[in-house]
Amino acid sequence: MEWRPIAVGTFLALALVAPSAGETETATGHVQLKEVTVEANEETLTVTLKTTGAAKYHATLIDTPARLVIDLESTSYEWRKTPLGVNTEPLKQIRGSQFSKGV
């Protein structure tokens, strides 16, 4: 799949944050997705996913409609149940769910 810039001059960065003090993986060895934040400045848009441990991920760009799908392996979804409206170009909203057990 070909990557096409969504907005000229805008850079989207994705960061997976290491666990904070006191946060550990669950007893099953799975980590939890606890928080997603968005930070924008003049030239950069950063989306940060906070997990309770190291998370392996697979990212896929999909064309119609244009979106980035990120699957976190061995991870339980513990974030909000409704979409997060962002409306900061090129990002409109962030949605999440438990795709399957552990993903």
Which outline best applies? globular
- Percent range of helical residues: under 10%
Q: Which oligomerization state do the chains in this entry correspond to?
A: single chain
Distance between the termini: 22 Å
Q: Concise description?
A:
This protein has 103 residues and is mostly beta strands.
Descriptive labels:
103 residues, mainly beta, four-stranded mixed sheet, two-stranded antiparallel ribbon, 0% helix
Summarize the SSE layout with pairings.
Blueprint: E1 11-17, E2 31-40, E3 44-51, E4 57-62, E5 67-72, E6 75-77, E7 84-88, E8 91-94
Parallel strand pairs: 1-3, 2-6
Antiparallel strand pairs: 2-3, 4-5, 7-8
What does this entry look like structurally?
The structure is a single chain. This protein is mainly β and 103 residues long. Helices cover 0% and strands 48% of the residues. The protein has strands spanning 11-17, 31-40, 44-51, 57-62, 67-72, 75-77, 84-88, 91-94. The strands form 3 sheets. The chain has a 4-stranded mixed beta sheet with strand order 1-3-2-6, with no helix packed on it. Strand 2 and strand 3 (44-51) form a beta hairpin. The chain is globular. Mean pLDDT is 77; it is low at 1-12.
